[in-house]
């Protein structure tokens, strides 16, 4: 650093390196500096006014500012405004929805769209865990988007299923519980043939006999098709309740559905219980209707 | 860097740049670049107005902006001819309605004009800045008013120096009021492109303007007053990004107002020689400084091309009038390129790479705009495939896919959209309704398509969703999409 300064009028700081590299003194404008200082003063007031100090008192309560303001309170207040607005805006629609039956809603374009649109979140909260976000089902949990209904796909039936829940029931090894392994294998072949439309072929006569002997027809119907929807699967169609695999079919016939022994499920039995939602859902009266409309319009409603 | 080193880095001979004459042996601030950016720093630029070719052309160019004020009052088919209806997301341009779906056309229009700016700048300098830019035009009008009220530049400067008194206020206040009024008229006209103009007027008198309208009109109006009245050339020099971008678009073949140094130098006042006195050999420039006096940005064109110059040609007018008086040929300052002074032939416009590239992009954008406008269908179809589940196995062996159909009616009459599907044999479909869609609205329907499993040879099967407007069967949209099925083994 040289002490000789050949540029005295330039406003440099007198710090000169390498003979001509020098530091200039260009202070920021006054207004800029003033707002800079004002910023520091502002910090003091901010610290007092808002919750800034990261300490808790004996009760675990955090240090509030003089204003008593907190972010979460503001959020709750804002959210309440939104909720009230929504409630007021859709009050007449909600009222109308409460006064209509599911059948009527399905016939009314506007109300149907409203019911479907307002169901998405409910469905996500209460139904999707088992039935999938779009009703696509999950292993062991039925698909809602298809047209195969264990308990009926009419609006009133869907509504009843949601309201009261459903419990599947299929005895292990036939009604009497006495089918042998060979018989189960035969009847499994027969059931597969049924879904392929070949149930009357001579090759499956043995299985057909077991189907009658095991009293399968009591629930699944004499031709593999239940006479009325009451929880038994239609065996003639292409949709399988638990899986189309032969192994899986044998497993279901062997261990049944919801089979209990001494109050607890036997090993290997399928557990198929849909809880009743009339007590689980908030505002169940209207919301069950809404969900019934939603499920009905997923793709297979009758 | 010493002088001899400097020569290593530079071509022999003149480059026509100011750097040629720079002494780089001493590196004080003046020598490292402060002086080569000659900016007017002595307060407001009070430019002299003199008539001339370019002055006349400037007025013609400026009159283009009258459209801004007249535009909102044009009517078409009972509505405002040009209306950018933001709340309803519709742009009306005469008979045309542009919805957000067609916004790519807007992108093409922007591309076209961006390249027009580039091409014109490459050919003839800052044409936009000098003649058409709204800031240039508004400043020009504002200073014209100033001259009418306060008089010639010398009078104005004297007035500015006077202490504030009643006489001064009597001149200044009306001027600022008129400026403000023009500013507000400008912002009002601008806003009138976004809401109906007549409606805006009637609501002005009944004091029913909304917050947005009021804020925009006041803010833009005051901004216009402030920018065109107070800041003037400082905007071009210090604020405007285009000014800088355009400087980068110049090349040696760009014609810009240039001072012919060879002809003009050495400059000096013409003097009648006294007997026996030796008359110095002088160039054509008589150093009258008129070119500086008329410059709206206060630059001295004789320093060469510089960033403060908006190439408005007013110095050419000034210099030509002087040359006429002293009986010298005109054109001491003229539109000329660096190549010309370097003694090179200017290539034809269509042989310059920049111009060719710029114009081909412009042509592309232009064709896209025309194609877009010609093929614009009044209907827009979107088919949203259900994601969960992608497909469903139905009990009868069919596979089902679900779509949510969105049909936008971009036309001006109601539409009855009927949806049908074409695809492989055995395909069946069901739609919940024929959509009744009002003009400018969107209709939504659910579409289920079923195809027998045995017909599917791949995960994706191409199908076509066809939407027909039953009110006008000529309007047909075909939406090609894929039907999704299980993996085929």
Topology:
The complex is a heterodimer of chains A (302) and B (489).
Chain A: E1 12-17, E2 21-24, H1 30-49, H2 71-89, H3 91-99, H4 102-107, H5 109-126, H6 128-131, H7 155-164, E3 166-167, H8 181-195, H9 205-213, H10 217-220, H11 246-255, E4 260-261, E5 264-265, E6 273-274, H12 284-296
Antiparallel strand pairs in A: 1-2, 3-6, 4-5
Chain B: H1 3-9, H2 53-63, H3 66-70, E1 75-76, E2 79-80, E3 82-85, E4 90-93, E5 96-98, H4 103-124, H5 127-132, H6 134-150, H7 153-161, H8 166-191, H9 197-205, H10 211-231, H11 233-239, H12 241-247, E6 256-259, H13 261-264, H14 290-293, H15 314-325, E7 333-336, H16 338-341, H17 353-374, E8 379-385, E9 392-393, E10 398-409, E11 415-422, E12 428-431, E13 435-437, E14 442-452, E15 460-469, E16 476-484
Antiparallel strand pairs in B: 1-2, 3-4, 4-5, 6-7, 8-10, 9-10, 10-14, 11-13, 11-15, 12-14, 15-16
Helix pairs in contact in B: 4-17, 6-8, 6-10, 8-10
Number of domains of chain A: 3
Examine the coordinates and then state which fold CATH places here, giving the name of the CATH topology of the largest domain in chain A. Cytochrome Bc1 Complex, Chain D, domain 2
**Which second-level CATH architecture of the largest domain in chain A applies?**
Orthogonal Bundle
Count of alpha and pi helical runs of chain B = 17
Distance between the termini of chain A: 93 Å
Q: What's the total count of β strands of chain A?
A: 6
Kindly estimate the percentage of residues of chain A that lie in beta strands according to DSSP.
Answer: 5-15%
Number of strands of chain B: 16
Strand order of the largest sheet of chain A: 1-2
* Coarse shape of chain A: elongated
Globally, the shape of chain B reads elongated
Relevant CATH superfamily of the largest domain in chain A: Cytochrome c-like domain
SSE-based structural type of chain A: mainly alpha
Structural class of chain B: alpha+beta
